[in-house]
Write a structure and sequence with these properties.
The complex is a heterodimer of chains A (118) and B (423). Chain A has six helices and no strands. Chain A is an all-alpha fold. The chains are: A mainly alpha (118), B alpha/beta (423). Chains A and B meet through α1 and α3 of A and α1, α8, β22, β23 and α9 of B.
């Protein structure tokens, strides 16, 4: 591309028009890629959505089942790993934790952190 | 820095092309999804499609104005809960999630033109159709057991008036009466359901009518969480519950509502109260146009829950064949989310994501005594398989605190899955 430094009002109009369209398109095109940029995000959301059946929408539980929306990423991963290893007592979670791997735990924790406050 | 005029026009050309692409994307984003059935499967699916892409039009078709859940209806039968506490509304689906709810029944589908006909005379066009209509009771599969007979011997396997009928019969029964539960062979809705029901009715009898007896006549020789139930029954309700398996003439083959008798191949019973849970199949709309392949239940792809018979139609919940997932409210809610993610991906021309399939079912053996069964699944070669070690039931030797914790978790589960589905 070559650019000419001299000013012309006509070109300035073109430029404004060009940038307005560019920004408008970027906004439209960038919207879905916020999630697509992280390939683990869909896995995290799928798994956390599954958890919601017991732990409530986005992990905000009512009643005796613990809420999971307030856990830090580290605490979330550590808790699930401890359930899986049998070093933490539990009821259903000692069994369910054996069904998810470490990459999935990280994806879940990241997704939960992203949903916090929404 | 800015482009020259020629560069600008070249740029505009590219932008116009991009614009055409976007226009197509947004046309797809306005695609129409029709969901038939407003239970744990359908309501969840409608909600999660809109949650993932609010540009999609989703319409829910459900004849009932409010939904009475089978989960915890056994507690209503046993007098531990009221029907209102297991009644869910569609208000949030309409108001919070922008899903119009049409109170009508779907009567026909044209898979070729992507249309579904309703009993109010209207027709809905769809790009993707989700069927989550639940079960239909097979009247006549037990000789003499039809809709009229169910007013004498309630099934209470679809919650509502039948739930209250069974409860009122138990309340009206004299102490010392025989209560009979006929349990069907697999597959049927809620595998541990008949045994939770037996447990909670036994709890009611032990408390209010201690000379009564409860007999389970079973069309099979083994059942879900069997060891846990039977161990608990011996401890909590000794001598009260008797279970007769199929191999000992447990299968009910005939009822006579007028004579008030229930018969197996070898024995006739005259119960004070009989709860007949008949064999089942997918509801009629899911068997339309050969969707069930003549099997009574619908075979689906394991990742998207799309019918293997007709493209563009997805079937979830009790009506689907999703073995080894059981026909439970949790499964329906779980499959609904996988189906929603698949539909959103397909409407955007993207690959179907790997589903996160799991199931958790709590059963109450007594109000403060809960047990559970869970499993996590993966899709391998278009089949649902249980992940090693993830499946299992509560330990047989668990202490009382674990049982009471699981009973509390069961209550909390109900609140949370109801919020997840209808909230």
């Amino acid at each position: 591309m070559t650019f000419r430094p001299e000013f012309s009002p006509q070109r300035a109009r073109w430029q404004r028009f060009f940038y307005v369209i560019l920004i408008w398109l970027s906004l439209g095109l960038l919207r879905p890629s916020a999630e697509a940029a992280d390939s683990a995000a869909p896995r995290g959301s799928a798994l956390i959505n599954a958890c919601a059946a017991c732990h409530g929408p986005d992990g905000r539980s009512q009643g005796a089942i613990p809420a999971i929306d307030n856990l830090s990423t580290e605490d979330f991963i550590a808790a699930l790993q401890a359930f899986r290893a049998g070093t933490r007592q539990g009821t259903v979670m000692t069994r369910i934790a054996k069904g998810v791997d470490d990459a999935e735990l990280r994806a879940m924790a990241t997704y939960l952190a992203g949903r916090r406050g929404r | 820095m800015a482009p020259t005029r020629r560069q600008f026009f070249r740029g505009v050309g590219a932008l116009v092309l991009a614009g055409v692409g976007m226009h197509r994307a947004s046309a797809q984003a306005r695609a129409r999804v029709v969901v038939v059935g407003g239970g744990f499967g359908g309501a969840t699916c409608a909600k999660y499609i809109r949650r993932a892409d609010a540009a999609l039009e989703v319409t829910l078709v459900e004849p009932r104005r409010q939904f009475i859940t089978c989960p915890f209806s056994n507690a209503v039968i046993a007098g531990r809960r009221e029907l209102a506490s297991v009644t869910q509304s569609y208000d949030a689906l309409r108001q919070r999630h922008g899903v119009p709810v049409v109170h009508a029944s779907a009567t026909a589908i044209d898979p070729a033109t992507h249309r579904v006909r309703l009993d109010d005379g209207s027709t809905l066009a769809y790009d993707r159709l989700v069927l989550s209509p639940g079960i239909e009771l097979r009247w006549g599969a037990i000789a003499g057991y039809d809709a009229a007979a169910s007013e004498v011997f309630p099934h209470a396997w679809e919650a509502g008036p039948q739930t209250m009928l069974l409860r009122h019969q138990l309340e009206a029964m004299a102490d010392g009466g025989l209560v009979l539960i006929a349990a069907p062979a697999e597959p049927y809705r809620c595998p541990p359901g008949p045994y939770e029901r037996a447990s909670l009715i036994a709890h009611y009898l032990k408390t209010h009518k201690p000379r009564s007896k409860l007999l389970i006549l079973d069309a099979k020789d083994a059942f879900s969480k069997q060891e846990l139930f039977r161990t608990a029954w011996e401890r909590l309700y000794p001598g009260l519950i008797e279970w007769i398996p199929q191999s000992q003439s447990g299968r009910v083959v005939r009822v006579d509502a007028r004579a008030h008798t229930v018969s197996t191949d070898f024995d006739d019973y005259s119960p004070a109260v009989a709860n007949i849970i008949p064999p089942q199949q997918a509801a009629a709309i899911a068997r339309f146009a050969g969707l069930d392949g003549g099997q009574g239940w619908c075979q689906v792809r394991a990742d998207s829950f799309e019918s293997v018979v007709h493209a563009g139609i997805h079937i979830i919940g009790d009506a689907a064949l999703a073995n080894p997932m059981p026909k439970s409210a949790f499964s329906a809610n779980n499959q609904a989310k996988a189906c929603a993610a698949a539909i959103v991906a397909l409407l955007h021309g993207e690959a179907v994501p790997a589903p996160a399939l799991m199931n958790t079912c709590y059963s109450l053996v007594a109000p403060d005594y809960g047990i559970s069964i869970v499993a996590v699944y993966r899709v391998v070669d278009d089949k649902i398989v249980t992940v090693n070690d993830s499946s299992g039931v509560s330990p047989l030797d668990a202490p009382a605190e674990t049982r009471s914790a699981e009973a509390e978790y069961a209550q909390s589960w109900y609140t949370n899955i109801a919020a997840d589905t209808f909230g």
